[in-house]
Amino acid sequence: xxHRVARHxxxxxxxxxxxxxxxxxxxxxxxxxxxxxxxxxxxPGEEFLPENIQPTFKSGRKSIMVWGCIAYGVKGSLIKxxxxxxxx
Length: 88
Hints:
With 88 residues, the chain is an alpha+beta fold. The protein has one helix and four strands; from the N terminus they run αββββ.
Protein backbone atom coordinates (compact mmCIF):
# COMPACT_ATOMS: atom_id res chain seq x y z
CA UNK A 1 0.00 0.00 0.00
CA UNK A 2 1.34 3.42 -0.98
CA HIS A 3 0.07 6.77 0.20
CA ARG A 4 -0.48 9.23 -2.66
CA VAL A 5 -1.55 12.85 -2.69
CA ALA A 6 -4.75 13.29 -4.67
CA ARG A 7 -4.29 15.24 -7.89
CA HIS A 8 -6.63 18.03 -8.91
CA UNK A 9 -8.22 17.93 -12.32
CA UNK A 10 -9.95 20.80 -14.07
CA UNK A 11 -13.70 20.90 -14.26
CA UNK A 12 -15.04 20.27 -17.76
CA UNK A 13 -17.77 22.70 -18.69
CA UNK A 14 -20.74 21.42 -20.72
CA UNK A 15 -19.29 23.25 -23.77
CA UNK A 16 -15.93 21.48 -23.35
CA UNK A 17 -17.68 18.10 -23.02
CA UNK A 18 -19.60 18.77 -26.26
CA UNK A 19 -16.39 19.75 -28.09
CA UNK A 20 -14.69 16.55 -26.92
CA UNK A 21 -17.61 14.40 -28.05
CA UNK A 22 -17.58 16.07 -31.49
CA UNK A 23 -13.83 15.43 -31.78
CA UNK A 24 -14.27 11.77 -30.79
CA UNK A 25 -17.06 11.21 -33.32
CA UNK A 26 -14.98 12.84 -36.09
CA UNK A 27 -11.91 10.73 -35.28
CA UNK A 28 -13.34 7.29 -34.41
CA UNK A 29 -12.47 5.79 -37.80
CA UNK A 30 -8.99 7.34 -38.00
CA UNK A 31 -6.09 4.92 -38.48
CA UNK A 32 -4.36 5.51 -35.14
CA UNK A 33 -1.41 3.36 -36.28
CA UNK A 34 -0.32 6.36 -38.36
CA UNK A 35 -0.33 8.84 -35.49
CA UNK A 36 2.82 9.89 -33.64
CA UNK A 37 2.17 10.51 -29.96
CA UNK A 38 4.34 12.94 -28.03
CA UNK A 39 4.50 14.04 -24.43
CA UNK A 40 6.69 15.83 -21.97
CA UNK A 41 7.62 14.88 -18.43
CA UNK A 42 9.27 16.32 -15.37
CA UNK A 43 11.52 13.78 -13.69
CA PRO A 44 11.41 13.83 -9.88
CA GLY A 45 14.67 13.73 -7.98
CA GLU A 46 16.70 15.58 -10.62
CA GLU A 47 15.43 19.09 -9.99
CA PHE A 48 18.28 20.06 -7.66
CA LEU A 49 21.19 18.72 -9.69
CA PRO A 50 23.58 21.61 -10.45
CA GLU A 51 23.02 21.34 -14.21
CA ASN A 52 19.26 21.76 -13.71
CA ILE A 53 19.26 24.79 -11.42
CA GLN A 54 18.70 28.32 -12.72
CA PRO A 55 19.33 30.76 -9.87
CA THR A 56 17.37 33.56 -11.56
CA PHE A 57 14.17 31.49 -11.74
CA LYS A 58 11.95 33.13 -9.12
CA SER A 59 8.85 30.94 -8.77
CA GLY A 60 10.61 28.44 -6.51
CA ARG A 61 9.88 25.48 -8.81
CA LYS A 62 12.81 23.51 -10.16
CA SER A 63 12.51 20.81 -12.80
CA ILE A 64 13.89 19.52 -16.05
CA MET A 65 11.97 19.04 -19.28
CA VAL A 66 12.19 16.00 -21.50
CA TRP A 67 10.45 15.16 -24.79
CA GLY A 68 9.74 11.84 -26.38
CA CYS A 69 7.42 10.20 -28.87
CA ILE A 70 5.93 6.85 -29.79
CA ALA A 71 4.13 5.57 -32.87
CA TYR A 72 2.78 2.19 -33.89
CA GLY A 73 5.61 -0.28 -33.29
CA VAL A 74 8.20 2.48 -32.81
CA LYS A 75 9.64 4.16 -29.72
CA GLY A 76 11.50 7.44 -30.23
CA SER A 77 14.39 8.74 -28.15
CA LEU A 78 13.88 10.59 -24.88
CA ILE A 79 15.48 14.00 -25.28
CA LYS A 80 16.43 16.29 -22.39
CA UNK A 81 15.49 19.84 -23.35
CA UNK A 82 17.99 22.57 -22.51
CA UNK A 83 15.57 25.35 -21.69
CA UNK A 84 13.02 26.04 -18.94
CA UNK A 85 9.42 24.92 -19.53
CA UNK A 86 7.11 27.47 -21.11
CA UNK A 87 4.39 28.97 -18.96
CA UNK A 88 0.93 27.96 -20.11
